[in-house]
Amino acid sequence: MGTSVKLVFIYFLMQILGALFAAPIGLVYGYVVYGRLAVAEIQPMLMSMAMLFGFLFMGLYLWRKGYLKNDGRLYSPVSASYLVISLIAGWGIIFLVDFVVSGLHFLPDWLDSTFEALQSDVLGLLCITLLGPILEEFLFRGAITKVLLRKYDPWTAILLSGLIFGIFHINPAQVVGACLSGFLLAWLYYRTGSLIPGILIHILNNTLSVYLSVTYPDADTVRELLGESVYPVCLGFGILLLIFSLLMLNKYKLPDTDIKNLEL
Q: Residue 190: what pLDDT?
């Protein structure tokens, strides 16, 4: 557990380091383009660059410490059918999370303006929809869940992994939904030893979130977007998809994944 918490703190330190690296580059760029520091104009780019550098530094740290290598199954696609059913499960969990979050509308969204700024920048969009999901799967499944599976029984490790993933998001509006998604992603990693199913689900979730936010800025949830007449049908169908996909995924006879004996 201590290692897991340490890795989360290191991630935040890497984000601070990323901001320190991005600041002078962004300020020089602003001066060249605008003839002045132009902090306000380059703020979205600065935030995106800081996030990018933070991702790179954290990825390098995980690689150097051995979390992302010497593991033959970590980057295995498992199978085409498994990935398809995993994406169906991801679609189902999106509806379940939306249903839960729509009932927690009183929770503050501390990062709303931050996401708006990132979504106004191409690099920011890339960080949210692609690079962020990959890095977070490296960290939370490739490192944290792996460590937890060595120390605890599978269900305890999955529960702790999901809770840490949720708390990691800090933003009250995201914590509960991230926990629910984290349980599924940790379970998929436990079942396969592969990061690929989780990466694809994570990309699907973030990309859909960005698309809905940009296209329908007045709707905070899918429930608001679809309306009360259509939403219950879609929710029921989504939950049925989730149950069906989990049952199918659980039937797969996958090769043994000896998480506890994987060498870092």
A: 93
Checking if the pLDDT of 129 tops 90, the result is: yes
| Domain-embedded: residue 169 | yes
Range of the domain at 192: 68-261
70: its two tokens: 């010497």
Distance, CA of 223 to CA of 95 (rounded, Å): 9
The 3 state secondary structure assigned to the chain is CHHHHHHHHHHHHHHHHHHHHHHHHHHHHHHHHHCCCCHHHHHHHHHHHHHHHHHHHHHHHHHHCCCCCCCCCCCCCCCHHHHHHHHHHHHHHHHHHHHHHHCCCCCCCCCHHHHHHHHCCHHHHHHHHHHHHHHHHHHHHHHHHHHHHHHCCHHHHHHHHHHHHHHHCCCHHHHHHHHHHHHHHHHHHHHHCCCHHHHHHHHHHHHHHHHHHHHCCCCCCHHHHHCCCCHHHHHHHHHHHHHHHHHHHHHCCCCCCCHHHCCC
| Domains held by the chain: number | 1
Model pLDDT for residues 97-125, shown as the tens digit of each residue: 999 999 998 999 999 899 999 999 999 99
Residue 221 lies in a domain: yes
254 pLDDT above the threshold of 80: no
Res. 30 pLDDT band, cuts 50 70 90: confident
d(CA 183, CA 198): 11
Q: Given a cut of 70, is residue 59 above it in pLDDT? A: yes
In a domain, 30, yes or no: no
90 with 201: CB under 8 angstroms?
yes
